[in-house]
């Protein structure tokens, strides 16, 4: 999921073709009594102050070391992550910085701080409900009535995703009703559908839920996020499907090869065909970048 978050961020930036800023933590040695007030000040760059980056395993997980100093979060907590792979990815972000540290390029570091500091103080239930709430306004559930080519494009690209989500097979069958609508009010999502998805998301830990909620927020779609979690969609496919109407509006001369020209009604069918025996797997982004300890 964390790899998906990073690729989702980069893919979204590539498609939107615009820089992405963000709230970044101030960086300085040691705890500071004014840290709580300054922690999420908008710092975007600073001169690189370390030579080497390494990881070590501690009692609480894997830690990041900048020379002799251990990385800390904006709220002065020891920066620890639950897996070595994630630690290596974060360390790579810090190691890849040149003379200037560009905090806005360190997306996994930012997301990890969301989990560690939890600046909005949301519990597991609140994260789950924030993600599931997007079902009421899910991008792929809203349909147009014209032009015909776009209607056909939405049907061919989005319907298979919804059908899969409604009939998701082993190991956990959703068995829910989602549907779509051309009404400005969107489809009426049954209460049972929300209850089933809430129950399913409850099986994930806080780290995973922070990532899931971030992805849902970026895609504006709970359904596409479910496909991404189950590896039924790549990050690139999920982003393109979430931007289907915008991509349709792009002039043919500047359109990428991801979608066919507007004049065509046949589509590229991004949703992969199921294979027999397939087994599927079980952000308000207000966090900021960390502060190394002295």
Automatic annotation (TrEMBL):
UniProt-listed InterPro entries: ATP12_ATP_synth-F1-assembly, ATP12_ATP_synth-F1-assembly_N, ATP12_ortho_dom_sf
Protein's recorded name: ATP synthase mitochondrial F1 complex assembly factor 2 isoform X5
Subcellular localization, as worded in the UniProt entry: Mitochondrion
Source species, domain of life: Eukaryota
Entry similarity comment: Belongs to the ATP12 family.
Listed Pfam families: ATP12
Biased composition (Polar residues): 279-294
Gene3D superfamilies: ATP12 ATPase (1.10.3580.10), ATP12-like (3.30.2180.10)
Residue ranges, annotated region (Disordered): 270-294
Keywords: Chaperone, Mitochondrion, Transit peptide
The encoding gene: ATPAF2
């Amino acid at each position: 999921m964390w790899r998906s978050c990073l690729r989702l961020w980069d893919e979204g930036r590539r498609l939107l073709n615009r820089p992405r800023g963000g709230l970044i933590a101030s960086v300085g040695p040691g705890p500071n009594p004014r840290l709580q007030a300054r922690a999420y000040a908008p710092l975007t760059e600073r001169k690189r102050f370390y030579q080497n980056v390494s990881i070590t395993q501690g009692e609480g997980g894997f830690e990041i070391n900048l020379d002799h100093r251990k990385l800390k979060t904006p709220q002065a907590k020891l920066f620890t992550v639950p897996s070595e792979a994630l630690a290596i990815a974060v360390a790579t972000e810090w190691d890849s910085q040149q003379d200037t540290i560009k905090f806005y390029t360190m997306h996994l570091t930012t997301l990890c701080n969301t989990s560690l500091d939890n600046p909005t103080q949301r519990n597991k239930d609140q994260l789950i409900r924030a993600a599931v709430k997007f079902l009421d306004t899910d991008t792929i559930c809203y349909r147009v009535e014209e032009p015909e080519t776009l209607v056909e494009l939405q049907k061919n690209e989005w319907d298979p995703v919804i059908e899969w989500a409604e009939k998701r097979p082993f190991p956990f069958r959703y068995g829910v009703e989602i549907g779509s609508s051309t009404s400005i009010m969107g489809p009426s999502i049954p209460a049972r559908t929300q209850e089933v998805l809430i129950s399913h998301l409850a099986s994930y830990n806080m780290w995973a839920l922070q990532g899931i909620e971030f992805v849902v927020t970026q895609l504006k779609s709970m359904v596409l996020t479910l496909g991404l979690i189950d590896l039924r969609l790549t990050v690139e496919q999920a982003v393109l499907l979430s931007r289907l109407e915008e991509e349709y509006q792009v002039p043919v001369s500047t359109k990428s090869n991801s979608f066919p020209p507007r004049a065509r009604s046949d589509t590229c069918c991004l949703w992969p065909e199921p294979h027999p025996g397939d087994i599927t797997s079980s952000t308000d982004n207000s966090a900021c970048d960390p502060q190394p300890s002295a």
